[in-house]
Design a protein that fits this description.
The longest helix has 28 residues, at about 375-400. Helix 5 crosses helix 6 (about 120-140) and helix 6 runs parallel beside helix 7. The model is unreliable at about 1-20 and about 340-405 (pLDDT under 50). By secondary structure, the protein is of the alpha/beta class. The chain has helices at about 5-15, 35-45, 60-65, 80-85, 85-95, 120-140, 175-190, 200-205, 210-215, 235-250, 275-290, 375-400; strands spanning about 25, 50-55, 70-75, 105-110, 150, 155, 160, 170, 190-195, 220-225, 230, 255-260, 305-310, 340-345, 365. The chain is globular, with a radius of gyration of 23 Å. InterPro entries: GH, Glyco_hydro_17, Glyco_hydro_17_plant. This is glucan endo-1,3-beta-D-glucosidase. Its EC number is 3.2.1.39.
Length: about 400
């Protein structure tokens, strides 16, 4: 009966991402060396990632993802918001950019702009809610409003205060537009999307912000003095700060989702903490939390949906070095660092293989040699050991009770 045990291991671990139903990933495309969308789909399928966000409505991506299990959030670029305030223009946009691809392509969300509230452009902010209303009206006219939710990702800079979480409140200069936006989310039962990066808090003040706290490593954490809730990581604290901010404006029932979070594996000399070790720890620990479908201390029974940033390093992104180094993978399909996954070129008679071979569905699997956090490794090892001893005993009992035949 022992040959059954490796099979159980294989079934349990073949899809490291598969157990995390609340996990998605951002698929940026600002690069001149990225794989084609069909190869990206092969990769996502191998990783069992079923939630993706893109930053446009790229027809090649939407066509390639047809008839797959991947749910996709598309984006309206900021410069289009003024145009889409017009209901007729919004209807034309939905008719040409969205309708031709559904239901074959599972478009589940439209991000109207990105970080509009922190763009310092009041004219742009004033276009946000009218554009969202026009797009929603167009979706309703086409019978798509029940399956496609509309929101906009905001940076954490929308908050005037975020620490402790119970002190969370929005900046006073945006409360008027924010109130309209929250009313739209409440009416349409859409989530509040937040781009939350503990990395930035650590980079800006590494002497005051504990590294273990932002990396999800074991640490004493902090207790909110008003709610007495305990936080052992900054990301959950940031999410709850947004919940408190919305509640203070009378919108306590809206769900918060993390539309972006990640950690750069490389940075400029002044970008403290941007290195491979921290990036691997952050994303590996976050994935473990996602495997458990955790909620935040304020909403422990509602799993926190999170989209990692990002799938690939993007070589044409402007800005500091870190901006081009958030990817879990290099464009050729090799890992930027190991979060518990291995990529293989696959069997080939040739000593050199093309980059496309990296993306075959069978080429990516969990690596048993992935580095782990030593502080948490021992406990995880014994928990795993106990679990598999239980599986072994249960399997043994089943086989022992089966009738024997000659």
């Amino acid at each position: 009966m022992f040959f059954h045990i490796p099979l159980l291991f294989l079934l349990s671990f073949s899809g490291f991402f598969g157990g995390a139903t609340s996990l998605g990933i951002n698929y940026g495309q600002i690069g001149n060396n990225l794989p084609s969308p069909d190869k990206v789909l092969d990769m996502l399928t191998a990783l069992r990632i079923t939630k993706v966000r893109i930053y446009d409505t790229n027809p090649q991506v939407l066509s390639a993802f047809a008839n797959s299990k991947v749910e996709i959030i598309v984006t309206v670029e900021n410069e289009m918001l003024a145009q889409l305030m017009d209901p007729q223009q919004a209807l034309r946009w939905v008719t040409t950019r969205i309708k031709p691809y559904v239901p074959a392509t599972r478009i589940t969300g439209i991000a109207v702009g990105n970080e509009v509230f922190t763009d310092d452009d009041m004219t742009l902010m004033e276009t946000l809610v009218p554009a969202m209303l026009s797009i929603h009206t167009a979706l309703t006219q086409l019978g798509l409003d029940s399956s496609i939710k509309i929101s906009t990702p905001s940076s954490l800079a929308v908050l005037q205060e975020s620490y402790p979480p119970s002190a969370g409140c929005f900046k006073p200069e945006i409360t008027g537009i924010m109130s309209q936006f929250l009313q739209f989310l409440s009416t349409t039962k859409s989530p509040f999307w937040i781009n939350a990066y503990p990395y930035f808090a650590y980079k800006d003040d590494p002497n005051s912000v504990p590294l273990e706290y932002v990396l999800f490593n074991p640490n004493p954490g902090m207790i909110d003095p008003f709610t007495r809730l305990h936080y052992d990581n900054m990301l959950y604290a940031q999410a709850d700060a947004v919940l408190f901010a919305m509640a203070k404006m009378g919108f306590g029932g809206i769900e918060v989702r993390i539309s972006e979070t990640g950690w750069p594996s490389k940075g400029d000399p002044n970008e403290t903490g941007a290195n491979v070790e921290n990036a691997a720890n952050y994303n590996r620990n976050l994935l473990r939390r996602q495997m458990a479908n955790e909620g935040t201390p304020l909403r422990p029974n509602l799993r926190l949906e999170i989209y990692l940033f990002a799938l690939f390093n993007e070589n044409l992104k402007p800005g500091p070095t870190s901006e081009r180094n958030y990817g879990l993978y290099q464009p050729d399909g090799t890992m930027a660092y190991n979060v518990g996954l291995s990529s293989f070129k696959g069997t080939s008679s040739s000593s050199s293989s093309s980059s496309s071979s990296s993306f075959s569905p069978s080429s990516i699997s969990l690596s048993s040699s992935a580095p782990t956090n030593p502080k948490g490794a021992t406990m995880g090892y014994y928990q795993s050991l106990v679990y598999w001893m239980f599986v072994y005993l249960l399997t043994y009992q089943v086989f022992m009770r089966r009738p024997m035949y000659n």
